[in-house]
Specification:
2 copies of one chain form a homodimer. The first copy, chain A, is of the alpha+beta class. In chain A, about 40% of the residues lie in helices and about 15% in strands.
């Protein structure tokens, strides 16, 4: 089984990170991981369909936002907070300070 | 002809802005507008196909990133820098400090 691709810290690109974060479900995912703890993928947004989450894990992982560890048929997920803070200081702080796309005002 | 939709400043959502910025062509567009001057849409990335740019103007406008002014059959574009700096302080500074997706290292 192929290893999961994770970009090196220096290869993480802002445009990829912004594209990965710029989706309401992925915003919810990174909020669930904000404390830096590793979590079993099934614990994160359990109400979201598994096929949708599989797509989002990959988008976040390939952009360098999360680390995904395989253990048998399970995945464990961590936010790459230190790597992102190194590459783009302030971006995660700014992101966590904002309400998510799920809280859009009706005015929009 | 319908007015172009522009979200009010307070209705601009981070998830939408990140999704709008998280694309290499749109990163190039906002860099071309970074000085805050209004530009004729045909001046910005003249090598990019018009149909592609039309899609990107809309994505950026609906997210609250640019203002698009119609003058006859032409459009004039401005970065909503003050609005974005008010809503998400530091985001544009951080974005302009980074190389674009067009400069990805071969290592990725």
């Amino acid at each position: 089984m192929a290893d999961l691709y994770h970009p090196e810290t220096r290869a993480i690109q802002l445009v990829d990170v912004l594209g990965a974060l710029g989706h309401p479900v992925r915003m919810e995912i990174i909020r669930a991981l904000a404390d830096g703890e590793e979590r079993f993928c099934g614990e994160i947004l359990p109400a979201e369909p598994k096929s949708s989450l599989t797509h989002h894990w990959r988008a976040l992982r390939e952009a360098g936002v999360i680390h995904q560890r395989r253990a048998g048929r399970k995945f464990y997920i961590t936010l790459r907070r230190a790597d992102l803070d190194t590459r783009f200081p302030g971006l995660l702080d700014l992101t966590f300070a904002e309400p998510t796309g799920f809280d859009k005002p009706d005015s929009k």
